[in-house]
Amino acid sequence: MKKVLIATFVATFLFWSCDTDNLESQIPQEEQQRVDLGVDPGELDRMAENTTGRQCHSMNVLSRQLQENPGMLQRMQNIESHTRVFEKKPDGVGNGNGGGEDPDPDPDTLGTITIPVYVHVLYSTSQENISSSQINSQIAVLNNDFRKSNSDANQVPSEFAGLAADSEVEFVLAGVTRKVSPNTSWGTNDAMKYAFNGGVDVITPETHLNIWVCNIGGGILGYAQFPGGSASTDGVVISPQYFGSQGYVSAPFDKGRTATHEVGHYLNLRHIWGDGRCKRDDFVSDTPSSDGPNYGCPSYPTVNCRTNDMTMNYMDYTDDACMYMFSEGQKIRMRALFGAGGVRESMLN
Ligand SMILES: [Zn+2]
């Protein structure tokens, strides 16, 4: 069964690879390298064995969406090619000074990126109808974490301190919708994103981050849709007890880091271990290889694949109190989406 699935995947992938579109034709041939952006089904099985630590279902949802949406893999491939160009030349216009090799990519000139956020609260109990102050606490956590103004940033061990990034991405609450529902758990099939299912339709995803706060069920904290997915389901879903840092929140996921992690996916970050064993990549050069997720609150150093894991990275599976950094490489990968021709460029005013 598995071999058949893989063969089908490869055949379909090759078929799509023959397609080209405008974005790809603008990208130099050497940048159109093919990387495996798909989901390893064995990894999903491995992740399913964890039932107590952090559970993010973004990769499960990606797997489903890739099967349902025939154009998505090609769009993701185009985004990946665009990202590779941006990582070398962030403005897409060359490196400026002329002579000499520049070992570091120039910082981009995008400045501070401000993302307006709609929060959709879907509730079946009064507790799930979270307060405005709980919502505001989440926006504050996002701003602190993405601007490296989080109070625990000083806990990053010296090995990684030079890599801890101020992503220069900020968030501002644009509006809140609230809707009562008989649904006590919504699952991960995007039902909450459609009014005809009792949910709330996405609002202007080309310019706004949409976050649905509703009970997912199954111990799942949240999930995000990766760039390249359908506009009608673009955004992040988080269960109310893991949203924000005050009010109806549940330890050890009560410091708002689930949203930081999921918005990381929304901005094209993969899990820090690359969703596979040592050789599988998260497409970020400055994050160490890892054999799998870390749970709870690991001590430093935690060695995997002969290097120390960056367990304090927001894209690992550690508890909220034990994750407190994005890396410089992750910052560039996220900001690539907003560069010229990037898939989230329209979010810039
Ligand atoms: Zn995740």
Task: Based on the model shown, name its key terms.
globular, 349 residues, single chain, 5-stranded mixed sheet, 9 strands, binds zinc ion, alpha/beta
Euclidean distance between termini CA atoms: 48 Å
Report on the biggest sheet. Answer: 5 strands, mixed
| Count of DSSP-assigned helices | 9
Q: What's the multimeric state? A: single chain
Query: What are the low-pLDDT stretches, counting only 5+ consecutive residues below 50?
Result: 1-22, 94-103
Structural class: alpha/beta
Estimated radius of gyration: 20 Å
What's the rounded overall pLDDT mean? Answer: 89
> Which ligands does the model contain, each kind named once?
zinc ion
Helix content: 25-40%
Task: Give the topology string: H per helix, E per strand.
Answer: HHHHHEHHEEEEHEEEEH
What general outline do the C-alpha atoms trace? globular
- The total beta strand count reads 9
Describe the structure.
The chain has 349 residues and is an alpha/beta fold. Helix content is 27%, strand content 12%. It has nine helices and nine strands. The chain has helices at residues 2-17, 22-25, 41-48, 58-68, 72-88, 132-146, 158-161, 257-266, 328-336, and strands spanning 113-123, 169-180, 209-213, 222-224, 236-238, 295-296, 303-304, 307-308, 317-318. It has a five-stranded mixed beta sheet with strand order 2-1-3-5-4. Strands 6-9 form a two-stranded parallel ribbon. A hairpin with a 2-residue loop joins strand 7 and strand 8. The termini are far apart. Mean pLDDT is 89; it is low at 1-22 and 94-103. The site of zinc ion (ZN) has 5 residues, from helix 8.
